[in-house]
Amino acid sequence: MALLQIAEPGQSPLPHQVKRAVGIDLGTTNSLVATMRGGRATVLPDERGEVMLPSVVNYSSERSPLVGADAVALAAQSPADTLMSIKRFMGRGSVDALADAQRSHYRLAEGDEGLVRFITSGGAVSPVEVSADILRVLRQRAVATLGGEIDGAVITVPAYFDEAQRQATKDAATLAGLRVLRLMNEPTAAAVAYGLDSAEQGVIAVYDLGGGTFDISILRLQKGVFEVLATGGDTALGGDDLDSALADWVLQECGSPTLAAGQYRQLQAAARDAKERLSDEQEVDIDLQGVMPAGGTVRVTRETFESLVLPLVKRTLRACRKCLRDAELDAGVDNIVMVGGSTRVPLVREAVADFFKRTPLIDIDPDQVVAVGAAIQADILAGNRPEGDLLLLDVIPLSLGLETMGGLVEKIVPRNTTIPVSRAQEFTTFKDGQTALAVHILQGEREMVSDCRSLAHFELRGIPPMVAGAARIRVTFQVDADGLLNVSAREEITGAESSITVKPSFGLSDEEIANMLQSSFSHAAEDKQARQLAEERLGAWQLLEGLKSALKADGEALLSAEEREAITGQMTELQALVEGQDADAIHAQTERLGRLSEAFASRRMDKSIRAALAGVSLDSLDDEVTQ
Ligand code: ADP
Ligand code: MG
């Protein structure tokens, strides 16, 4: 069984020294900071009394960056200098990000290691720097409120964030002068905010409908430990889409006039305002003065609004169904936590209650619940609660493995495995006298290397020359509590070791993750065949290579001319089959040749035992060890 390691949740503090610890929800649309005050987690407001900081930054050559509402005010006027929804670009390469950037009218520049950068009047900035600017404002807000420098922060990330995206978030925090105690998954934070961790056990669904994204996560709580069973969602579905649905309806009601870009943006804003009011009222009037050429007002009832957004709500439920399937639950969920401003829409609440057959938890403000949970966890990790025994386990979104001979992927850590985790497997050499091993780390669900995503390469050198298959190389995959992967390879005889921390040059968007998963399902049968063929070819190739070198060494001495001819004849036949596509035929011929050469192999074995007894060892083999 796998070794599952659980990290220490921080050390006990000195008796009366309380650390200043904060939880930060670094959101796509809005960001918040919270801390424990008077035994309660509370979000911290700015000097204007606002707790939500719009995740928007405006850059200019004349002044330092503007963050939040002030930046939002400049969005229409200087779109390319006003960066929004930057979370979507975290840890992603410029190639990856191109489509998203075009949609948002940003100018892209190639950064280090192919990472994306945006060109603004204030210079080129990376998503990490933009996020750092947002985090810096929240840090200053906390410093001002708490009266001193922050000792540590818990920053939340979507559960599906991969290594690169998590690393980018950590880098942003460091750049903003924050010490990261831990990255925490958003759904886990929401569950902690509701104190669901104090129950004996249970299964929790976290339904998060924000401004531009939808995330669903299934968590399991057991003996005070949270485990993320599965995650799913839609990166292009959120409150903005509800706004658009309503805006399009209004436009139609008004006879579909042609609007200027600026007017359409105003219509969107008016629709958003109406949508938010409709969460409390049965009908509202939308003022179209300055929005529509004809002005006037239009009345919209909640019923109309609901009929407009029902298809979108249903889409979220489909994602929920899939996620439940992924979680492989026997029974239903015990609790549903609602997160994100859009869960204020009554229809959303009803549909979710209906789907899960439970009343969702809505008591904590859905905008604040993630920051609140992060603040509680930060308090524990900072050591402010010596009794704190909360352990949080997260999940990896895609399987991690390495390349083996034949272009095959051996999965070491399967997808949805909870982290931190450490898994090891033994591998061996393929060729006689092989002294180095190429370790190629891959991510994905498909069977062939070419269909998975390459994360990193490294080499293990210093393997003593031995016959193929004799070396024992232990490869260990370790994913830490923040989701960062370290892979090490160790040759057991000499102890030669080599390792790498995987920080891929860019990460995957969850859309890509979804695509990779989808294609692994749809290619399952084809992959199985490809794998079988690759394995049979490999087996055949190994036998052929072994026999070639054995014939060269001992063919004359240990075999009669007829025996030699029989073996080489069958070898030629196998060689021809290996080039074809028939896995079964390769298998049958490999078996045949194997049986035919059995006697030869045992004669060779006898010979080498006799040689060994006579004191002749393999030391005479050429040594090309480089380390
Ligand atoms: P994110 O997680 O993406 O940062 P939030 O959780 O802050 O986003 O959610 C923002 C979304 O919530 C916006 O689309 C906003 O219109 C919507 N929202 C906020 N309040 C309400 C409300 N009362 N009724 C309906 N939608 C709301
Ligand atoms: Mg959010």
How would you characterize the overall build of this protein?
The structure is a single chain. With about 625 residues, the chain is α+β, with helices and mostly antiparallel strands. The chain has 4 domains: about 15-240 and about 310-395, Nucleotidyltransferase, domain 5 (2-Layer Sandwich); about 240-310, Alpha-Beta Complex (Actin, Chain A, domain 4), CATH 3.90.640.10; about 395-520, Substrate Binding Domain Of DNAk, Chain A, domain 1, CATH 2.60.34.10; about 525-615, Substrate Binding Domain Of Dnak, Chain:A, Domain 2, CATH 1.20.1270. About 35% of the residues lie in helices and about 25% in strands. Strands 1, 2, 3, 4, 11 and 12 form a 6-stranded mixed beta sheet that branches. A 5-stranded mixed beta sheet has the order 18-13-14-15-19, with helices on both faces. Helix 6 (about 240-255) runs antiparallel to helix 8. The longest helix has about 35 residues, at about 525-560. The radius of gyration is 30 Å and the shape is elongated. The two termini are about 35 Å apart. The model is unreliable at about 1-15, about 390-395, about 505 and about 615-625 (pLDDT under 50).
Q: What ligands can be seen in this structure?
A: adenosine-5'-diphosphate, magnesium ion
Mean pLDDT over all positions: 83
Q: In total, how many beta strands?
A: 29
Secondary structure class reads alpha+beta
Helix content: 25-40%
The 3D shape can be described as: elongated
Whole-number radius of gyration?
A: 30 Å
Biggest sheet descriptor: 6 strands, mixed
CATH architecture of the largest domain: 2-Layer Sandwich
CATH class of the largest domain: Alpha Beta
**Which spans have pLDDT < 50 for at least 5 consecutive residues?**
1-16, 388-393, 503-507, 615-627
Work out the count of structural domains: 4
Counted by DSSP, the helix tally is: 15
Quote the CATH topology of the largest domain: Nucleotidyltransferase, domain 5
